[in-house]
Amino acid sequence: MPPGMTLREFQRQIDATYGARDRARGVDGTFRRLVEEVGELARALRDGDPRTLEEETSDVLAWTVTVASLCGVDVERAAMRYANCPKCGATPCACPHGSS
Ligand SMILES: [Zn+2]
């Protein structure tokens, strides 16, 4: 996404670019694509190539936003849950290790 773009604008941009195709595919097929991209990210983590890691991260982000759109989830609102740790409310998280 271009510098300065909000998460809400990013979600709108993804929808403007792919929304018609995504709605035709439906949530099940789109979720499958997200899972495939997570698998590709797993491979990139094993390989460790920084460029591929960046690409696969962007794919996972874009498909996550797409699944959210198909389910009516506002990604910017959802992300606000992590403004601080949603469990303990602190930054950095003060939860006991292993609990989050
Ligand atoms: Zn915490």
Structural account:
The structure is a single chain. By secondary structure, the chain is mainly α. It is built from three helices and no strands. It has helices at about 5-45, 50-70, 75-80. Helix 1 (about 5-45) crosses helix 2. The model has no long low-confidence stretch (mean pLDDT about 95). Zinc ion binds near residues 87, 93 and 100.
Overall body shape: globular
Helicity level: 55-70%
Say what oligomer this is: single chain
What class, by secondary structure content?
mainly alpha
Unreliable stretches (pLDDT < 50, length at least 5) are none
Q: Spell out the helices and strands N to C.
A: HHH
Please work out how many helical segments DSSP would assign.
3
Give the averaged pLDDT, no decimals.
Answer: 96
Strand content: under 5%
Bound molecules: zinc ion
Main sheet record: none
The number of strands is: 0
Cα(first) to Cα(last) distance is 29 Å
Radius of gyration, in angstroms, nearest whole number: 16 Å
Outline the fold blueprint.
Blueprint: H1 7-47, H2 50-70, H3 75-80
Helix pairs in contact: 1-2
Bound molecules: zinc ion (ZN).
Keywords:
100 residues, mainly alpha, binds zinc ion
Give a concise summary.
The protein has 100 residues and is an all-alpha fold. 68% of the residues lie in helices and 0% in strands.
